[in-house]
Every structure is written in structure tokens, then in C-alpha cells.
Design a protein that fits this description.
Helix content: over 70%
Low-confidence stretches: 4-8, 10-16, 67-72
Order of helices and strands: HHHHHH
Radius of gyration: 23 Å
Shape: globular
Number of strands: 0
Length: 196
């Protein structure tokens, strides 16, 4: 009886430790996502500001019409959207890197530092990328329609978040959690290829 109670107590303490770790993981993921969202906006605004300033400096120093043509930005997407998309691709690369680290380096005996670093960085890159996609949706439309376009993009993202749980749960039930997370990493690589 004592041995059985000892085993049950050890099992209970182990599961409590795992639950606390999972709770910290999710909390850190969400908390660092706030900083990822803010940092992505600030970073792309600074990139846009400095590139526009450089372009305006070229424009004022250009004396001839040929020099002005060289100073003009290439045709295609506006500079602000190009900056945000490039930053979004960088964020997606960071997310894929930390998802890979999560899939192949985090295991039962992994250190808490590694686990929490992976959680924080995944949240940072994930939420930063989502915030940039909302900003890009706003910049593709006119100013009078920007709020609606961001609302529609957010609605699509929320539907995606809701319905992503069904196939994820199915994969984890039929195969394993490990397989489900590797599928998430593969889909992230696929999205990166579509964006590039």
C-alpha cells in the first residue's frame, strides 16, 4: 500500500509539473505575441520611413530626367506593402525555425529554458506575422474601406483559427501529437513558398 501511494504521489506531482509547464508555455506564447505584433509594426514603419527618406534624397539630388527615372521605385507593389511583405516573410522564417526546434529538440527531458524560449519566440513570430497581414490588407484598399478590409481579414483569420483545430485534433488522434506538429511545420513551409 505504501509503495502504491508513493507511486501515485510521484505520478500526481509529475502531471502537475507538466500542467504547469503547459500553462507557462501557452501564457508565454500569448504574452510574447503582444511584443511580436508591436515590434513588427514599428519595424516596418521604420523601414518604410528610411527607404522613403533615401528615395526622397535621391529625388532632390537628381537634376536630369534620366536621373529621376533611376531614382523612381520599380513598378509593382507600393513600397510600404513590399517592406511589410518582406518583413512578414522574415517572421515566417523565424516561426518555421522555432517550430522545427520545437519538433526536434523539445522532448520529455528538455530544459525549461529551451521550452520557454521556443514558446516565446513562436508567439513572437506568429502574432507578428498575423499583425502584418492585417496591416497589408488595410493598405491594399482605399482609406475609406481600410477598417472593413482589416475586419474581413481578421474574420478570415479567426475562422481559420477555429476550424484549424478540427484537422489538428484528427491528426493527433489518428497518428500522434508529434505528427500533427510536423504537419503544421510543413504547412508553414508551404505558405512560405506561396508568399515568395
Amino acid at each position: 500500500v505504501r509503495a502504491k501511494n508513493k507511486i501515485l504521489r510521484a505520478y500526481s506531482q509529475t502531471n502537475t509539473c507538466i500542467l504547469f509547464s503547459a500553462s507557462y508555455f501557452v501564457s508565454l506564447f500569448e504574452f510574447s505575441g503582444i511584443f511580436g505584433s508591436v515590434f513588427s509594426g514599428v519595424l516596418t514603419d521604420l523601414l518604410f520611413y528610411y527607404r522613403t527618406k533615401k528615395f526622397n534624397d535621391k529625388l532632390t539630388t537628381a537634376g536630369k530626367s534620366e536621373d529621376m527615372k533611376k531614382a523612381a521605385p520599380p513598378n509593382g507593389l507600393p513600397e510600404s506593402i513590399r517592406n511589410r511583405m518582406n518583413t512578414n516573410i522574415d517572421y515566417l522564417l523565424g516561426l518555421i525555425g522555432f517550430m522545427h526546434l520545437f519538433n526536434y529538440s523539445v522532448h520529455r527531458r528538455a530544459s525549461s529554458t529551451l521550452l520557454f524560449t521556443v514558446a516565446g519566440m513562436c508567439g513572437f513570430f506568429s502574432y507578428g506575422s498575423i499583425a502584418l497581414l492585417g496591416i497589408i490588407a488595410m493598405e491594399f484598399t482605399s482609406k475609406s474601406f481600410s477598417g472593413t478590409s482589416h475586419g474581413i481579414a481578421s474574420l478570415a483569420a479567426n475562422f481559420g483559427a477555429i476550424f484549424a483545430g478540427i484537422p489538428f485534433a484528427y491528426l493527433s488522434k489518428v497518428f500522434s501529437w508529434n505528427y500533427a506538429f510536423k504537419c503544421v511545420e510543413a504547412f508553414a513551409v508551404l505558405i512560405l513558398l506561396v508568399l515568395v
